[in-house]
Amino acid sequence: MKRLLLIVGALILVSATAYGWGRREHAAVAKIAENHLTPKAKSLLHKYMHRRSIVYYSCYADDYQPLYIDLGWDPSNYRRMAMFPHTYCVDENCRPPRSNRDGDKYIKNCLYYIDTWSKELRENHAKMNDSVRLTHLALIVHAVGDMHCPVHIRLHNDTSLGIYKVKYGNKTRDFHGLWDRGVVGAVSPWSYTDLAELLDTSSEAGIAEICKGDVFDWGEDAARTATPLRHYKAGDEIDPVKFKHENLAIGELLIRKAGYRLAKVLNEIFE
User: Fold this and answer.
1) What pLDDT was estimated at residue 67?
2) What is the Cα–Cα distance from 99 to 203, expressed in whole angstroms?
3) What is the tens place of the pLDDT at every residue in 14-38?
């Protein structure tokens, strides 16, 4: 795979539809993960990430959009930024592909990239160029959060990612964007640290169960959890109170799982 290049200094502000979780939700995922890092992983991450918490980089991929030369990025075409692999596809059984074939929809398979970046770090983190290593780590921190967001999963019968308009109360809203502020963010009036503390409640046995398998197994689990939430269609009228009530618990569950699974990925890199 060609080397991933991050053009630092070019701040690219992505559109609202590019996001899944809001900034607080991404930060909460990273904070939960940080709570469960091994001493060795925490020490090396502190060293490699400029003595900053992984929470600092939880939205780095949204703020500084990576320029994937190997994914066909064209600086003359802004919309090619959508090639950033922050989504993935599943089949009718909610199983994601374990590949990333050039030229088709699987090129956006973030599960493949999380797996690839993790393996590269496990094998070479001590010898990596500082900027490449930081980029890999920052993208893993963000992408593990993204893969657990219901509107980042391309279902076999709905690959839209929720990018369509619905009537939300008395306003027309983009359905994808509701997951930024319309569920966890709208109901939970807390900081990211409060949210992480409230959600980090699983026992050691429970965490072990959540973290069984690999990133592709986690993608299948997230897809099965998210599928029922995707019954809304373009033009639907959505009651905000009912929407939040029905989806809050599932949203919180996915954030919790993302945090524990991110910790497992990072701990395995530095074990």
Assistant:
1) 45
2) 33
3) 333 344 588 899 999 999 999 999 9
Residue 95 contacts by C-beta under 8 Å, 6 or more apart in sequence?
A: 216, 220
Q: Are 96 and 216 in contact (CB under 8 A)?
A: yes
Buried-exposed string 109-129: b where 16+ CB fall within 10 A, e elsewhere: bbbbbbbbbbebbeeeeeebe
Q: What share of the chain is helix, strand, coil (3-state, %, to 5)?
A: 55, 10, 35
* pLDDT value at residue 131: 86
Q: How many CB atoms lie within 10 A of CB 182?
A: 21
| pTM for this entry | 0.86
For 21-49, the DSSP string reads: S-HHHHHHHHHHHHHT--HHHHHHHHHHT
- Can you tell me the mean pLDDT for 105-124? 87
118 neighbors 139 (Cβ within 8 angstroms): no
